[in-house]
Amino acid sequence: MSPDENRGKTLKYLVLISQIGISMTVPIVAGIFLGKILDDKLGTNVLFLAIFSIIGIVVAFMNLFKMVTHDFNRK
Questions:
Q1: Pick from 15, 3, 27: which is nearest to 71 by CA?
Q2: Residues 39-66: pLDDT tens digits?
Q3: Which pick of 8, 38, 61, 72 has the fewest CB atoms within 10 Å?
């Protein structure tokens, strides 16, 4: 394998790892942020924070599942 091919594979895996990290982080942080805002506006303790955090975690793992199954279907 030539150094250029090796570099290309390394960059491809780096992009995939970055994409996984971002697609898992954004929904969780958005859920926490939205839940906190709703709790502050409505005067609830941590009700919406808990609900939207769980929704964010579920969405993050759904994104991960979609990316993994898409990658397997391509091969």
A1: 15
A2: 999 999 999 999 999 999 999 999 999 9
A3: 72
Give which of 57, 39, 60 is closest to 49, Cα–Cα. Answer: 39
**61 contacts 67 by C-beta, under 8 angstroms:** no
53 vs 30: CA distance, rounded Å: 8
What is the domain partition of the chain in residue ranges? 31-70
| DSSP 8-state symbol, 4 | H
The residue to which tokens 């982080």 are assigned: 25
Three-state DSSP string of 23-74: HHHHHHHHHHHHHHHHHHHHCCCCHHHHHHHHHHHHHHHHHHHHHHHHHHHH
pTM: 0.81
Do 14 and 22 contact (CB within 8 A), yes or no? no
